[in-house]
Task: structure prediction
Amino acid sequence: MELQPKSWVESYTQIERLVLPADTNVFNALYGGRLMEWIDNVASIVAFKHCRQGTVTGSIDSLFFLAPIHLGYIVNMKGRVNFTTKTTMEIEVDVSAQDAMTGKERFTTKAYLTYVAVDVDGKPSPVPGLKLNDDESKARFKSGEERSIRRIELLKSVKKEAQIFDEVH
Ligand SMILES: CC(C)(COP(=O)(O)OP(=O)(O)OC[C@H]1O[C@@H](n2cnc3c(N)ncnc32)[C@H](O)[C@@H]1OP(=O)(O)O)[C@@H](O)C(=O)NCCC(=O)NCCS
Result:
């Protein structure tokens, strides 16, 4: 059965978190690892909503930390699907941080993650395509496709390296 394409709107996810002392480093700023976990969580929700089946994180091929986020700030994460292949979804997460006292907000982080849908045996499984209803969706799909070409090239060389490692161990 052919899967019906879906709009990015159906899986768009926005989550907010308050930065607490347990989330910070010695500079009173949010740990990079904690933010990565939150970003992966947002993107996983987007992936589930888009394909409504099991998914795994395949790769995080870009994660730009542009500005630190400090203790007591409100972190706002927005995730959306940009691009799909037969079994994968590229999800972009944009992060901004708001000073809880003044409301002033700053764009801090951008990530592109790829999720692979999997069946009960953990094997890649088809996902719905994306409806491209507007110019922005079309532009995002095109740039997602360009990143995908680079990602697949890199994946090939990483898989080769893994194969060599596995052969000698
Ligand atoms: C991701 C995984 C299911 C892919 O399995 P595989 O047998 O190597 O998949 P294939 O080579 O048949 O590729 C299937 C598709 O996934 C893509 N893909 C495979 N591995 C990928 C990766 N690491 N990153 C991004 N895309 C990947 C391929 O390009 C292909 O895309 P297509 O839809 O255009 O065909 C497997 O490598 C895996 O289970 N990895 C571990 C995942 C994990 O533990 N994540 C962290 C916790 S959630």
Remarks:
- The mean pLDDT is 97.
- The CA atoms of residues 81 and 91 lie 4 Å apart.
